[in-house]
Design a protein that fits this description.
Elements: E1 6-17, E2 23-32, E3 37-42, H1 44-57, H2 84-89, H3 91-102, H4 106-109, H5 112-117, H6 122-125, E4 137-140, E5 159-163, E6 182-188, E7 193-198, E8 201-206, E9 210-212, E10 229-232, E11 252-258, E12 264-266, H7 273-277, H8 286-292, H9 294-308, H10 310-316, H11 337-343, H12 346-350
Antiparallel strand pairs: 1-2, 1-4, 2-3, 5-6, 5-9, 6-7, 7-8, 10-11, 11-12
Length: 353
Amino acid sequence: MGDAFIRHIELLGYEKRFFPSQHYVYMFLVKWNDLSEKVVYRRFTEIYEFHKALKEMFPIESGDINIENRIIPHLPAPKWFDGQRSTENRQGTLAEYCYALVNLPPKISRCLHVVSFFKVRHDDMNPITDSQIKKPEVFLLPKDSKKNLTDITGPIVLQTYRAIADYEKSSTSEMALKAGDMVDVVEKSENGWWFCQLKNKRGWVPAAYLEPMDGPDESEEQEPNYAGEAYTVQKSYTAVEEDELTLKEGDTIEVIHKLLDGWWVIRSTIRNVKSIHRQGRKQISQETYRRNSKKYIQNQRKRQGNSQNKANVIIEKKEPEDNKPKAQPAVPPRPSKDLILNRCTESTRSKIL
């Protein structure tokens, strides 16, 4: 495999931080050639110093010799005092700069200077905080920011989710979870991995391990595309349940709906997919898919059967179960109806009544 390079840089918004003193940092989602995605935080002063060094490395492409040869994008210098207004107004220019940067010739866009600047740092994953000072305020660009880069949200409270099972991280970019942990979701990726923060920790976690505190947010789901979007299968997959489809590497498929938990609905994957979308809503949630799929119904029946036989199992087994290896599912089952009624909030319980 060749050297790492950046495929895309997306400006997510900015944070207003209060430690060690009030300042602002921009949030970038950096997509790499190995298909990994990392969120990094940079002050504008850092970005401008990076820009100046890049121009010195490529004087011809920066127009220092002949202005007509300039291809490196312009970036205005920081103001004497950078407040919230200038931080917000600069986002459009910064988003355009990042787009132009990754589309420069490879000798520039893939040079060590660019790659090193956007690599994840220690403080991207574990920002320095003070528990006595309030949490950072997050300002996110809207989904249609490319159409209107000046339409910025006000200070928002990130969505809070509850971990439904323990999760042990397998890489430094991930974050471990304990059942019951409350995390704030910063970025939801269609591949089923969400970038979350828990106190002073940040990292990627599988979406299947999280449940919303106030029910699914349907506004974030894309609308189904019945015409289908063509994709090529990169790795073979054998169906486990009736509502899944066995795929072979190299197959061409048509994606109907991209769910935020990482499972995509493709042609004929869910038999009653059309009937689901005949409901009166423009958008439907991933929970609706689960409730209308055979896989969800089968899992519900299995859980109900297990709960009914639980007492008998405990009486018959005298040996400790620790002797048996416990398989950790890649995607844990969603909580049963009884569990939700007993342990979840009133808002969550109302969703299933």
